[in-house]
Write a structure and sequence with these properties.
Blueprint (H helix, E strand, L loop, with lengths): L4 E4 L14 H15 L4 H9 L6 H22 L2 E12 L3 E10 L3 E9 L6 E8 L4 H5 L18 H5 L1 H22 L5 H21 L8
Length: 220
């Protein structure tokens, strides 16, 4: 599954909102935002945080547009939007809060993080991030058996293989060795499309090894 990631960073600007003076105020705003995200009302969601986010309004409107556009595209793969769910909150000292949610679809979910910063007495929205890296939620929860960074679980109909994807990698090495042999010894007599296909396979295989944290084999 192609990884998608959006990170909206904060810049200095002015705000005239009613101050968020407590952690409860910040959580309530995050909940309102995510309730609208869970309904697919992305522009309304970003409107909710606009007065508490020190960014120019046109930039926030653009974020809402990008989010709406991208998530409408992935619904073809992820399926029907079902809602949202709160996962966890984290704090760093007395100045940062992070609320983590998932936006639930029929076939997958997206991870959302709403970050608040308190420079003095009130909380301000500092960043809103979303992506489809839901395996990272296991690390947040402290699961030592969480899949490696960037690695899918591969549990759809093959859970044992998914939990031990290095065995899959070993089998893939055997396949690659055979393709390399064809490419090396068959290239003088095989058509150009075949040679290019072999090279493309080798390139994509090396990328897959890197993605799964496997060492790229060197049979020579």
């Amino acid at each position: 599954m192609k990884t998608i990631t959006f990170i909206f960073a904060v810049v200095v600007a002015s705000s005239t909102a009613v101050p968020l003076t407590s952690e409860k105020d910040a959580k309530d705003l995050a909940d309102k935002f995510m309730n609208l995200v869970g309904k697919g009302s992305y522009r309304e969601a970003f409107d909710q945080v606009k007065l508490h986010w020190p960014l120019p309004a046109p930039e926030i409107d653009n974020m809402a547009y990008q989010t709406e556009t991208q998530l409408k595209m992935v619904t073809e793969r992820f399926g029907k939007l079902l809602g949202q769910e709160f996962i966890q909150s984290n704090s760093i000292g007395k100045s940062y809060l992070r609320y983590i949610y998932i936006q639930k679809f029929e076939n997958h979910a997206t991870r959302w993080m709403v970050v608040f910063y308190r420079p003095s007495k009130e909380w301000k929205v500092n960043a809103i991030n979303w992506d489809d890296q839901t395996h990272e939620l296991f690390k947040i929860k402290g699961d030592q058996n969480a899949p490696p960074n960037g690695s899918p679980t591969l549990r759809q109909g093959a859970s044992d293989v998914g939990r031990n994807h290095r065995e899959v990698g070993s089998l893939s090495y055997m396949v690659k060795d055979r393709v390399d042999a064809f490419c090396q010894f068959g290239s003088p007599v095989r058509p150009l499309w075949y040679i290019l296909a072999c090279r493309s396979f080798t390139y994509e295989f090396d990328r897959a090894c890197s993605h799964f944290g496997l060492a790229t084999p060197n049979p020579h």
